[in-house]
Amino acid sequence: MAKILIIAEHNGAALNSSTAKCVACAAQMDGAEIDIAVFGASVAKIASDAASISGVSRVLTVERAENHPAIAAILAPQIVALAKNYSHLFGPSTTFGKDLMPRVAALLGVNQVSDIMSVEGDYRFKRPIYAGNAIVSVEAPADSIVVATVRTASYQAAEVGNSAPVESTTVDFEIPTHTRFVELKAAASDRPDLQSATKVVSGGRALGSEENFELIFKLADKLGAAVGSSRAAVDAGYVPPETQVGQTGQIIAPDLYIAVGISGAIQHITGIKDAGTIVAINKDEEAPIFEIADIGLVGDLFALVPELTDAL
Predict the structure, then answer these.
(1) Which of 127, 147, 168 is the last residue of a domain?
(2) How many domains does the chain have?
(3) Quick one: pLDDT at residue 180?
(4) Is pLDDT at 178 greater than 90 in this prediction?
(5) For the purposes of burial, counting CB atoms within 10 Å of the CB of 226, is it exposed (0-12), middle (13-18) or buried (19 or more)?
(6) In this structure, are residues 40 and 67 in contact, taking their beta carbons and an 8 Å threshold?
(7) What is the CA angle 144-145-149, rounded to 5?
């Protein structure tokens, strides 16, 4: 029977939905025992939220000042100290998990399984390769611990309603001196978080300037949506990198995704394949984005987007 430890992602105040999606993945294993580890300085509220996720057997808290904010170099050795009691260690395939889990795998001397999108057995998983153009089955050795990241876009968050016990624990480890926290710089926004938003409006290079991107912001505000972008728009300086959607940005699965002036390069398509409904607005009727769009509008975005915004 698989005994799985999921590393909770949080910002110090709230649990990220990626944690519940990791639980949904782990629950695909028959008879799996699922624990969640919460690292931080003061995590009582976060641990309580984690304990409410259906399917969780236990929540372990490791509270110490060094654990906030979360730094991979500091969390990884603590996770390794807990690993001896588990057959699997799961983290989300988000910026947090992609930074943390490879360090854990390296310290344990095992290969990481990345971007699990479905479970075929305790040691056999499916994951995308070649920017999502192919899906492969990979099998990890059964005689060593499995360290993996979960492709959160492939899972719905596990339901809540549980009341798993919360246990405080300590681990002995040497605090790394080669890495230290200096400062956190993050863009402040009243809009929904791109990673967890149910509606996203994205703009591409066709918008032509940072000023013209205001069309995307206005439409997103009317919909209560997050704002995304293509890599080309980021490279052109229209919007900051944290808005980028795609293989080298964020992989998301909103209920509604509106792509404005985005041609649909395969790297961008990789980031939105699991979206519920995809709407494309582009003047080029041959644009690749229309091949995957559920609804397509061919025309001048500078006329169509304001008209759509006014109609909402």
Answers:
(1) 168
(2) 2
(3) 85
(4) no
(5) buried
(6) yes
(7) 135
